[in-house]
Amino acid sequence: MEAIIIYGLIAIAVLVLLILLFLxxxxxxxxxxxxxxxxxxxxxxxxxxxxxxxxxxMIVDSRIMSRQAAIRDIPTKMLVAHYLAGxxxxxxxxxxxxxxxxxxxxxxxSAAAIDLAGRDIVEAVQTSVDxxxxxxxxxxxxxxxxxxxxxxxxxLKARARVTVRTNLxxxxxxxxxxxxxxxxxEGIVSAIGSxxxxxxxxxxxxxxxxxxxxxxxxxxxxxxxxxxxxADIDVGDNVDARLQADQAEAQKRIARxxxxxxxAMAVANEQAMKALTQENRAKVVLAEAEIPxxxxxxxxxxxxxxxxxxxxxxxxxxx
Length: 319
Hints:
Layout: H1 2-36, H2 43-51, H3 56-68, H4 76-84, H5 89-101, H6 108-116, H7 121-129, E1 132-136, E2 146-149, E3 154-166, H8 177-193, H9 198-203, H10 206-213, E4 223-238, H11 239-301, H12 303-318
Antiparallel strand pairs: 1-3, 2-3, 3-4
Helix pairs in contact: 1-2, 1-3, 3-5, 5-6, 5-7, 8-10
């Protein structure tokens, strides 16, 4: 019984040894690369990565890049943890190298957080080094100009180009490019509206840019505004004249409505007077109809006959 147990243990040990030899043979080339590049990744670390379903090739290459670029040593465990968290180790290391070459302060924790937040860390570093230009307003939103009205009632249509660079310290949790465009657009419209005359803006468009830059519109955003340039500005409608015309038209309609109301009241009064006239005529007819009845009553009472005799006696006396 003891012999069977011993043979079983030996078989298991041989099997484990064969698996280890297989894994060592499989990753020997990668391990040699790490050793010759002084990446500091051991063979058992590589085997453990494969068991954790981590790409050892990417981790070793990232370690080699960081060592060759002479950036601060990043432990292998941090690279593996970032990979397991769903991050892109290669892009983060490349971003760190680019930031170091450009003398930009960026550490591993910040870069990893930006990558895990879904931002393109390499593009962010590139934009920080080489600022990009964005259109305001953005044509993909269906608008081509920013429309503002000066105090003299003249509309101005402007287009601006905003130069921004990435603010790495605000990239996580900071507002996006759309927020910057919206703020700049609002600032331009407000600056035009506060101008006394459209001629002042046309003569010196920098008045707008100075007013917008003074507001600090890049606060709490992922970008830092470098400059705002007015690309084009045109004269639009005379809004004041149009509003006055609309007001005059509205007043005319009100006057017409009041005149129509007075006419309707006059027609109603006329109809009322006609009805009153008809009512009075009916009363006259009724009164005239009562005359024969009154005369008949007078004959019956003898009043009409007595009056006639008195009339005849009076006439005879005169004769």
